[in-house]
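Tokens for chain A. Residues wanted.
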């Protein structure tokens, strides 16, 4: 009996480590409206995590690549802005061919062996500035994880050694958050376009 209890406790602890999403909301009319017309996105991290440009670029690129590889959206661009987001700064990203803007509002704090991180995320549709989806997540992770070693090395090569402690925590936080995104309905033409993105 004790062994079963211990196994259950260990199992629950493992679940708790993954359960980082505190809140997630998708518009109730998503399937009727946005599923068919908000497919092509720009990602922006705003303001910069810990005031660091390289960290902001890391967040935006991880989000872009993760969504293009694991969700049905087509992320066409990723950027960062130092100032807190405003309606005007988000609308400015709604250039031709962009139907929605995914905003990531990060909080990061370096720890001895990793980072405490949190994010507030929202997907705004360009047509009228309404939120299609929102989520909040938080978590604390170490910087070392064998499963992400090669991926971390690629980001460090691209953005420099200052991002290294943050790669694994950021990836894990954004994965949990972005997995709550709804999936749009793609046409055959959309699918061909997504294949061309090649991420």
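Reply:
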């Amino acid at each position: 009996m004790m062994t079963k209890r211990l196994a259950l406790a260990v199992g629950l602890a493992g679940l708790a480590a993954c359960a980082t999403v505190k809140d997630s909301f998708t518009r109730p009319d998503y399937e009727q409206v946005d599923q068919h017309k908000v497919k092509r996105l720009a990602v922006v991290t705003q303001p910069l995590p810990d005031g660091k440009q390289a960290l902001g670029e890391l967040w935006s690129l991880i989000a872009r690549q993760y969504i293009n590889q694991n969700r049905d959206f087509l992320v066409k661009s990723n950027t960062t802005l130092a100032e807190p987001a405003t309606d005007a700064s988000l609308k400015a990203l709604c250039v031709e061919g962009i139907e929605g803007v995914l905003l990531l509002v990060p909080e990061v704090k370096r720890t001895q062996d990793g980072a405490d991180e949190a994010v507030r995320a929202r997907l705004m549709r360009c047509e009228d500035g309404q939120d299609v989806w929102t989520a909040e997540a938080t978590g604390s992770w170490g910087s070392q994880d064998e499963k992400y070693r090669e991926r971390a090395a690629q980001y460090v090569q691209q953005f420099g050694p200052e991002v290294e402690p943050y790669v694994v925590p950021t990836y894990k936080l954004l994965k949990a958050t972005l997995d709550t995104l709804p999936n749009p309905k793609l046409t055959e033409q959309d699918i061909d376009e997504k294949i061309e993105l090649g991420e």
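The beta strands are 21-26, 40-45, 74-80, 100-110, 114-125, 131-142. Residues 1-19 have pLDDT under 50 and may be disordered.
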